[in-house]
Amino acid sequence: MTSVPDRLPAVRRIREHQRRWLDDVRAGASRGHPFLVCTSDEAEEMANALGIAVLVINYWNFVISAGGRAPALTEALHRRGYAGPHFFGLGLAAGLEPEHAPWGGLPTPTLVVGSTRNESELRVTELWARALGCDCYPLDFNFSSPERRIPPDNWWELIRDHGEDLVDPGRLELRLDQNRRFLAELEARTGRALTPGALAHTMDLVNQQMDVMTRAADLVAAAPRCPVSLRDQVAAYQATWHRGTSTGLALARDYLADVEARVADGVGAYPRERRRLLFWSMTGEPRFHAHLREAHDAVLVGSPYAAMPATYARTVHGDPLRTLTARQLFLFDMRSTSWMIAQARRHRVDGVIAVERPSPHPSRFAEACRAEGLPYLALPHESDDEANRTALARFVARL
Amino acid sequence: MAAGLLPYRISGVPDRATDLVAEHVTTIRPPFTRRAATIGFVETALDAVLGGALDFVDHLVVPHTRKMVQAAYRQLLLAQEARPDLRLPSVHYLDKAYIPSPAASRFNRAALEGLADAVASWSGTPLTTHALERAVDVMNTSRALLARVAALRKANPPRITGPDALAVFGSAAVMPREAHNDLLAAFLEDTPPPVAPTDPVRIHLAGSPQDHPAVYRAIETCGAVVVGDDHCWGDRCAWWPVRSGGAPLDGIAARYDAMPACSVEFPLARTVERCVDAAVGSRPDGVIFFDLDGDEAQLWETPDEIAALRAAGIPTLHLPRQPYTAHLPEDVTAQIAAFVTSLHTAGVR
Ligand code: SF4
Ligand code: SF4
Questions:
Q1: Predicted TM-score (pTM) of this structure
Q2: A112, A117, A119, A153: best mutation site toward chain B, by most B Cβ within 10 Å?
Q3: Cys-Cys link to A225, which of A40, A268, B58, B234 (CB 3.0-4.6 A)?
Q4: Rounded CA gap, B223 and A144, in Å?
Q5: What residue segments make up the domains of chain B, in order of their start?
Q6: d(Cα A99, Cα A242) in Å, to the nearest integer?
Q7: pLDDT by residue (tens digit) across A89-113?
Q8: A Pfam family this protein belongs to (chain A) (predicted)?
Q9: A120 Cα: distance to centroid of ligand 1 (angstroms)
């Protein structure tokens, strides 16, 4: 029997890099280097084109919760009157009570970039900027704004070359204007100037990195035995936080090289792979996966993370800022059932598992799979509990 | 109105089961674990639309306000596509930029012009300047009359109860406005008598929008009167008249551009200032923040607003994460009662 390979070395290097990078950003910021805080897919490329470090709130929140700090920070928010369960607000909480934050908190950023992604995110970023002692710069509309122009179900086939056609033209012009003013603001505050071609170069690096990641995902999907565990696939995705930099590209190439080596050596990430399954939820590896593997020899071979790099890569038609802006307004649409079916085919799976709110009515995803003759299992959460185990046993039995 | 259509404002239906949302909307939501924030008045209103409760409505304008409201646009389109037998109104998306800038004003103006075109095509009547002027006039008259109603309850002693004032404001949005104006003008001809025999405790209600009177009743059962509020089914209905003079569409567009969507205005300080001004204008003994579960904006605004009111010496009660229901839980009514009593005994006035 093949022994279970360790975690992919490239993934370990990505994780180590993240830690070093966070230290470097902190050190740089305390020496007065500019740095930005923004929510995902709002301002990273613009900052990178100016050589400004950017910390993505969603990533920072993951760092915070991975460090087990969420309960104390949630309590910190409750004490200040912010009731409820919290995830997006954790970074703000860490700004309010730095003693509970990783590294004792963040240095003062140049700006916190606010987002009207929803009512709460704008407020959280404003409060956070106040806690850190800097300004909040808000940007309107983004890929999670409810659409005015509804993308077709096969958006994923059009997105690389026709991204602009998928977004509302009025919103595109507005956000373009906001981005231009934001760049001018960044230049004024940091004394840096966007050199001609810098943004085009950034967008080119993004495309290269995403093509490398897509190539790696293709190899993972096509290999006779799944060469990279879902856990490592998701961990490798962290390189995306550095898209548009040579570092991001290097991390992606490193990952691809490891994947190629495993494929060449015929190494499988899972010792037994009797059934291949697609996990169609964005939560990383679900807690029931270990049981699924051990009790049923059924393994999760792919997830939306395998398909997302391709949504970042966009052909620049002349104006890179315009291409980027269109991408900020539409990145991907999880509602597309054809996207899920295409991923299921790509990964040659025997079935699909998703986390859905319990409902007496089959979701569109369940129906799409049924139409394709693909077994589909909706679980209410990703825990490894008795109810999930029973549902999994029944599901695997009918594959 | 200028096109001869009857505008009808949709509200939630407290305690309505949302089976139809589960059947037609939840099923199109992508699989995710983290619960999408829901807010009762949107879910129940959507359910009512799906259930045909608004079968007299031909066209539905979905505004770009809170995210849950905006999302209804695509949800209704998808539901209709999946189930052609559902009798749903056609939907129009009225977009809006939040962050003020000249480009945002142009954007908002274009969105409004898009609505004007849609309305004209629905009615088959072009919108003439004259008709628009007349509609602006009717609406501004309505706002002026509603402001007088608001003043009645702010009077000392108050001359209209909170639930009654809420009913007056709400009815303006669901009936022909001219008729409503006539009724209001008649009502306002004589000053009504005080609503409470003795000096009642004056409460200003802040927090989430209230489209039904349960909270008002709970407060007034304790011997207090709701003398003012801060949401868009209440006093705010009287705010922001369209400026007169100039082309009517310019005035309407300027109003649309300047008016915040829900409470969301940038920066937060402006929202807080508006909240404090509204509260102080009610000359209250205390302010109650009733924040609905799922109201993601209010969640982050209330603590700042409370701090500002405290600084102004106004006592507050914060009721976070409240259910959208006509039957308030007992512990909530008990907290309201205790707060009102504390204002009594503290002899704040
Ligand atoms: S909000 Fe609830 S959980 Fe949080 S501190 Fe207050 S009582 Fe405790
Ligand atoms: S708070 Fe007012 S503007 Fe916002 S969604 Fe509700 S009714 Fe609309």
A1: 0.94
A2: A119
A3: A268
A4: 46
A5: 19-123, 129-345
A6: 27
A7: 999 999 999 998 887 788 899 999 9
A8: HGD-D
A9: 19
